[in-house]
Amino acid sequence: MADPLLVVDNLHVTVDGKEILKGLTLQVQAGEVHALMGPNGSGKSTLSFCLMGHPKYTVTQGAIRYQGRDIAALQPDERAKRGLFLAFQYPTAIPGVTIANFLRTALKSVRGGDVPVKEFRLLVKSQLKALGVPDAFMNRYVNDGFSGGEKKRLEILQMAVLQPKLAVLDETDSGLDIDALKVVAAGVNSLRSPERGMLLITHYQRILDYITPDQVHVMVDGQVVKSGGPELAHALEREGYEQFKPAAASAASV
């Protein structure tokens, strides 16, 4: 088997002096979709920001290796250029910046060179069609006045245009109605690839009705306390997270 695309090894992370991740270990192979599930406050979003190098999050122990390299010293833009991508739970509005300009600038940065206008238009047009989004969407300002569904569609559009090697989707299903959820899930499924790994962070099982993960991980109190197949998500839906909290406390005390 090839080396994992992503290895998170005994990761400890603090935010403003408080430890949030407490020895988290996780591996994702290229071609796999992993679902990371857990209650509020378990550290899921902390992991996503840490993977992208947010300066507020301090690694005190452990390592993050991407494509076999420790990326602790890399800035967020350097990680993005190497193929890491984060779809935010709460995407930021950028009034005055059109989606077209935003996407083309991001693509030029990731590629490290100019992107011909014709190539860019053809690429974007095909992805807009796949997501069921009108062409006029590209003339709007980034997330300015967007509904929850529109914001998440734009996150998936960014991923489709940038074609990352590792995509981290932080609660992409948050705030979506069933129609928007189906569209976003279809977009994610269309981007599954033998060369791409995905880490799908979510509270609920419902998005996994439309995206079948290769593995499911349960995260409680800053640690992965159980891993399994898609059936684990259904068990969580029935039984909740309380069953794992004593296990997390016991593991943390070792």
Tags for this entry?
single chain; alpha/beta; six-stranded mixed β-sheet; four-stranded antiparallel β-sheet; globular; disordered C terminus
What does this structure look like?
- This protein is α/β, with parallel strands linked by helices.
- The chain contains 8 helices and 12 strands.
- The strands form 3 sheets. The chain has a 6-stranded mixed sheet, sandwiched between helices. Strands 2-1-4-5 form a 4-stranded antiparallel sheet.
- Strand 11 and strand 12 (223-228) form a beta hairpin.
- The chain is globular and about 50 Å long.
Residue-averaged pLDDT, rounded? 91
Question: First CA to last CA: what distance?
Answer: 31 Å
Largest pleated sheet = 6 strands, mixed
Taken from the alpha-carbon principal axes, the silhouette is globular
Task: Please give the share of residues in helix.
Answer: 25-40%
User: How many beta-strand runs?
Assistant: 12
Q: Roughly what fraction of the amino acids lie in strands?
A: 25-35%
Poorly predicted tracts of residues: 247-254
> How would you write the strand order of the largest sheet?
6-9-10-3-11-12
Radius of gyration: 18 Å
User: What structural category do the secondary elements indicate?
Assistant: alpha/beta
Number of helices: 8
Q: Helix and strand succession?
A: EEEHEEHEEHHEHEHEEEHH
Summarize the structure.
With 254 residues, the protein is α/β, with parallel strands linked by helices.
Question: In terms of topology, how is this protein built?
Answer:
Layout: E1 6-15, E2 18-28, E3 33-37, H1 44-51, E4 57-66, E5 69-70, H2 76-81, E6 84-87, E7 94-98, H3 99-111, H4 117-131, E8 141-142, H5 148-162, E9 166-170, H6 178-190, E10 197-202, E11 215-220, E12 223-228, H7 231-239, H8 245-253
Parallel strand pairs: 3-10, 3-11, 6-9, 9-10
Antiparallel strand pairs: 1-2, 1-4, 4-5, 7-8, 11-12
Helix pairs in contact: 4-5, 5-6
